Amino acid sequence: MEIVSSLCSWQDHLESVYTHQKSEGQIVPLRDISKDLFEDAIGSEEAATKIASCVCVSDDFQTAYLDVVCFIIGAANNLSEQHDLSKLANLTLALSRLPDARNETRRTIQLSFDYKTSEIGPGDIFVVGEGKIWADLPQLAVDLGDSMYGPTAYISDGLAEHWAEQKWTNLNTFAAYLISSLNDTPCPFDYLYLYTFRTITDSLEYDPKTEKGIDSLHSLRSACRWITIAGE
């Protein structure tokens, strides 16, 4: 099985974010803030504060917030350098530690995430279902779970085998970094433990020549990442 070193660099990912922002006429400067983060010009706490400030002053709060979630999930799929995924996880954790976002306008804002709709009155905290922005990072768990359906499924979707293995490793590395700092966030990331057991079981328990072991070799690096990050 061919192993590749990178699905894309953080520079490539940020350029795609910029292209999307420009085409949509959006104001959240995700590329510039994230560029400073990945270049170590600013830390994760400062980056999170700047991103949140831009989201909160946006004329379209929901779109601006979901663009942040989309950026995080896209980067977790694409970035394969371990230190970049660590920075991405630290940014995500920093966002979850921010003060509750409030509707600072004089109008009621309607939010709709994952088939749940909420009306946020002036001065109220942004809450969708039982999830607060920023503490619970609504929609992030749904989108991350939708991405982590496994290397065999990625291949079935048309992704080359080596890219499927790389994508699975990227996502599990990101998840492992989130779990490693579980005590430093109010966001409930403990559901990600499922992938710890899944990757280790897939890679060690089953013979890759059997039906149950179909993801065995594809999950080996992911399992190693979970173990090594847990030991850091």
TrEMBL record:
| Cited Pfam families | DUF3632
Q: Could you tell me which InterPro entries the record lists for this protein?
A: OpdG, Oxopyrrolidines_Biosynth-assoc
**Name of the featured protein:** Uncharacterized protein
Name the species this protein comes from.
Aureobasidium pullulans
Q: What is the lineage of its organism?
A: Eukaryota, Fungi, Dikarya, Ascomycota, Pezizomycotina
